[in-house]
Fold this protein.
Amino acid sequence: MNEQLETYFAVTQLHARYASVVDAIDWDAWCELFVDDCVYRIQPRENYERGFPLATLSFTSKGMLKDRAYGIRETLFHDPYYQRHVIGAPLILSSTEDRITCESSYAVFRTKLSELSTVFNVGRYIDEIVRTDEGLKFKSRQCVYDSEMIPNSIIYPI
Amino acid sequence: MQSAESVAPERRQSSAPLTWFEDGTSRIPFRVYTEPESHQRELERFFYKNHWCYVGLEAEIPNVGDFKRTAIGERSVVMSRAEDGSVQVFENVCAHRGMQFCRERHGNRKDFVCPYHQWSYSLKGDLQGVPFIRGVKQDGKVNGGMPPDFKKEEHGLTKLRVATRGGVVFATFDHAMESFEDFVGEAVLHYFDRMFNGRTLKILGYNRQRIPGNWKLMQENIKDPYHPGLLHTWFVTFGLWRADNKSELKMDRHFRHASMISTRGNAQTANEVSKVSSFKQTMQLHDARFLDIVPEAWWNGPTAVMTTLFPSVILQQQVNSVSTRHIQPRGNGEFDFVWTHFGYDDDTPEMTERRLRQSNLFGPAGFVSADDGEVIELSQKGFEQKPEHRALAELGGRDVGDTDHMVTETLIRGMYAYWRKVMDE
Ligand code: FES
Ligand SMILES: [Fe+2]
């Protein structure tokens, strides 16, 4: 039981850390939550459930995450906004010495300057987490979102 | 008491006529984007009459009974595959009392049944079953039933005329329409056929975004070769957009449709040519696979062809990424934009991977498309606050015509020349 609790605690901390860095617009820290050979995807639930491979964003290396970070910082024009994550308790699906699989619900709120806060994107994280010397890291994070319509665009990582 | 000054501006906004400043269309009144009444006329004249509108790809409904719910303008329609293999499109409004009966977005059915009173329709939209049509027998007496002269044949769903070409499905409420081929015209049809050359398509998936701006702004965006090298600095930074790209702009004879055709140049370093200040020549991707471009035989040269079919769809080929982008208006100030990415039957697994990887560049979060939605939203905000003003589209002159370069807004002028004709303005 102790081990299970420890795992649960470590996973919730990783999730909280994730929320903290993406909501603080700290893209370098976001990249470092992943191992080099990683997957990060934001995919409509429709595609996920119908077996269509297309994702809204689909990255398959930490290099791609860094390229996204660069794009957000330097090349993508967008209306400025804050985002705020609320992540539900993780359901641990499996846990071994070196890896954990789990899933959890999330909601992301968006607040544009001079505007009210709105629900931006809601869905489910499907995670594969590995234990490394520097603690838990994402091997894979899939954001499968229910939100049928993207309110114009997604710039920041979900 | 309300003062005259406080009501005047509002009256001016809602009832002043649209003003075109001169004969041409290089000055576009903001009111074309802000007037609900003008929007209704656009729906009638562009989406519901005299135009073939996009509904989908045949590959979305490969089997008998497959269907997809979608929209033409602001009217919900269903595209289905009938028993004889034909593609059918009918309006999603029950012939009985008007319920929008089809709620799933896709699926497979033997027939369509409206839940309210169980009227049932064939895959072609013909009325098949009407409960209690002959009434109900009770104590030797027949109660109710439809009148004796009620004919099921007269109460099918509203059927649309359908045109398919190269696996793409278009439909129209207007049964007197010219053929799809005449509608598109030879010049643009050439680029349509290039992309849809008879190979079976393979659906890769969808992206859906709701953009708070007038629907025409998306047509304009893809008729505007002025912005990509300036707004989409990612394109420039990583060498995908160069002002020395060999390019051509071609329109149909009405100037409503257009193709922007470009072939990547490989001459000098990019900043010598583009003079774009934000260009960072030393920038390299951490993961070059985003731009792992492999030329395909069907391109016949051009590396990117963006085709606008007025009013409803954009056909995208940007290197190995191909998609349709469906415009579905929702009032004058908003539209849904639905992306269907696809590949071809004979794609290798590597090519499918490549198309998927390059799709990161496009779509609602794409490196070079997310900002299109953003500027459209902010343009609409500008129009709303100053509806009596106008936009300027004079790059490359004030006339309209095909060109062999990208330094022009001629396609936008062309689109509004057509718009003015159809809207009688
Ligand atoms: S409204 Fe459809 S059956 Fe009555
Ligand atoms: Fe663009």
Q: What stands out?
A: Chain A touches chain B at residues 42, 44, 46-47, 50, 52-64, 66-68, 70-71, 74-79, 148-155 (CB under 8 Å).
